Amino acid sequence: MNQDSSQLESKELKTFLDNTFDTMGQVLNEQNPELRQYEIGTVRFVGRDIARVSGLPHIRAEELVRFAGNYMGLVFNIDIDEIGVILLDPSENLQVGSEVHRTKRVLDVPVGEGLLGRVVDPLGRPLDGFGEVNTVMRLPVERPAPAVMDRSPVTVPLQTGLKVIDALIPIGRGQRELILGDRQTGKTAIAVDTMINQKDTGIISIYCAVGKKSADVAKVIAELREQGVMNSCIVVVATGEDTPGLQFIAPYAATSMGEYFTEQGKDVLIIYDDLTSHARAYREVSLLLRRPPGREAFPGDIFYIHSRLLERSTHLRPDLGGGSLTSLPIVETEAQDMSSYIPTNLISITDGQIYLSPVLFNKGILPAVDVGKSVSRVGGKTQLAAYRSVAGDLRLSYSQFEELETFSRFGTRLDDSTRRTLERGWRVREILKQGQCMPLRASEQIASLLSVTGGTLDHVPIEKVREAETCMLTAFNEQLPELCGRIDGGKKLDMNDRDSILNKIKSAITPLEESEETSADDGVTEKKN
C-alpha cells in the first residue's frame, strides 16, 4: 500500500515538473529580448544640499533623478559640461563618483481623499506614524495655472470667523489674501483660526509649513486635532531641518494636492506658512548652484516663482466644476518694513493684504490687525449682505477714530462731539478683539457689530464690553434662532430685524450699563454704576 502511494506521488510530481518546464520553455520561446539604452551619470561634486552631475546628455529641466541609495534630486541647472541638482534628501551619504539614474519623469506627488487627516512631507511620504498614504493618483508638482477664460468671478465669501476681517477686510473663495507682519504678531494664529472656522462648511483646508520649527508645526497640528477639524485638513511639512530643495517644492506640492479637489468642484483653502522662508530656501540653492544674485542677493526670478504659485489660486467656471482654491500666503516683515523686496513682490501679486502690527500686539489688541494698512481688493463683492448694512462705513469711521485718538493725546479738554467719537471708537476696538480658536458665525458677528454701531454699548463701561458681548450673544442665539439662520444664509437685514436684535441686546446688557448724569454747572460727567 505504501509503495503504491509513493509511486503515485512520484508520478504526480513528474507531471507537475514536466508541465512547469513546458510552460517556461514556451514563455522563453515567445520572449523577444529588446535592448534599451539607459543614461547613467556620475556625481562630480557634492555640496551642502546640492550636487553637480555629468554624463546625462538628454536630461531635461525639472526632471527627477535618483542617486545611489534611492536618494532623490531635482534637475535645476543644465550647463554644457555639468548638471546642477538640488537634493530632496540629506546629502551626507552621497559620494563623488557614485551613479545617477534618470527617471524620465517630472516631480509628482500623490493626491486624493487618502491624504485627508494626514501629515506628509512634500513628496507625499507620511510623517504622522499612521502608515502609508493610500492614494491612486499622482499629479505633477509644477502645473500651469488655469486660463483666464476658465475662471469665474469671486462671488462667494470665505468666512474666517474673525470680526475684524470678515467685517472690514472680507475674503472671497478663490482670492489670494496676503498675511504679513513682524515675528510673533499672530500671523499663523489667524490662518489656523480660519481653518478651524471651516469645520462644518465642507471646505478642505491645507496647511503648508515651510522652514518652520518642528515644535511650531506640532502645535498647529495639535490645535487642529483638538478642535476636531483635522479630518478635513492636510498638513504638508518641510521644516527648517529639511533640505532647501524640499522646502522649495513644498508650496507647489501642497497646491497640487489642493487642485485635485478643486477640479472635482470642491472648495479648498491653502495656507503657505511662510513664503519668506520659501524665498530664502530658493536663494540658498540658487547661490550654491552659482546663479547670479540680484537685489538682496535673491535671484532675478524670485518674483516668478511666487507668481506662478499664487496664480494657481482660482474660482473655476461652473462647467469646469465650479471649485475654488483660496490661498492665504504668510510673509514676515522686519521692523515693520513693508517695502522690502519679498513683501512688495507678494503685495503686487495678491488681491490684498492683512497687516499685523507689533504695536497693537504689544497693547493686547488681538488679533493685531492694522485696519489702515490692510485691504481686500476683491472680498467686498463677496461679503454677506447683512455686513454692508451693519458695518458699511465702519472701516472709515474706525480709521478716523484712530487718527483722532492720536491727536487727542496732546489736548487736555475735548468737546462733546470729539469725546463721543472717542468713546464709540474705544468700544468698537474692544468689540473687535477676539480670542484665539474662538471663531464666530456670521450672525454672531453681525449682532456684535450692530450692538456697537447702533449705540447700544455706549453706556456700558469699556472694561465690561467683552462681558456684555458674551451676554448678548447668548440671548441672541437662544431667542432669535430663526433670524440667526437667515443671516448665516446670506439674507439681507431689514429694519425690523435690526430692531429685534437691538431690543434683545438692550435687555441682555441692561445690568451692565452705567447711568450718566451731567452736571449743568461745568459739564463734567459723573458716572454711577
Protein topology:
Layout: H1 2-30, E1 40-46, E2 50-54, E3 63-67, E4 71-78, E5 83-87, E6 99-106, E7 108-111, E8 119-120, E9 137-140, H2 163-168, E10 178-181, H3 187-196, E11 204-210, H4 214-226, E12 233-238, H5 244-262, E13 267-273, H6 275-288, H7 302-310, E14 314-315, E15 324-332, H8 341-349, E16 352-356, H9 358-362, E17 375-376, H10 385-391, H11 394-408, H12 416-432, H13 442-453, H14 465-479, H15 481-488, H16 495-509, E18 515-518, E19 525-528
Parallel strand pairs: 8-12, 10-15, 10-16, 11-12, 11-13, 13-15
Antiparallel strand pairs: 1-2, 1-6, 2-5, 3-4, 3-6, 4-5, 7-9, 14-15, 16-17, 18-19
Summarize the structure in short:
The protein has 16 helices and 19 strands. It has 529 residues and is an alpha/beta fold. Strands 8, 10, 11, 12, 13, 14, 15, 16 and 17 form a nine-stranded mixed sheet that branches. Strands 1-2-5-4-3-6 form a six-stranded antiparallel beta barrel. A two-stranded antiparallel ribbon has the order 7-9.
Question: What this model shows, in words?
Answer:
By secondary structure, the chain is an alpha/beta fold. The chain is built from 16 helices and 19 strands. It has helices spanning 2-30, 163-168, 187-196, 214-226, 244-262, 275-288, 302-310, 341-349, 358-362, 385-391, 394-408, 416-432, 442-453, 465-479, 481-488, 495-509, and strands at 40-46, 50-54, 63-67, 71-78, 83-87, 99-106, 108-111, 119-120, 137-140, 178-181, 204-210, 233-238, 267-273, 314-315, 324-332, 352-356, 375-376, 515-518, 525-528. Strands 8, 10, 11, 12, 13, 14, 15, 16 and 17 form a 9-stranded mixed β-sheet that branches. Strand 4 and strand 5 (83-87) form a beta hairpin. Helix 7 runs parallel beside helix 8.
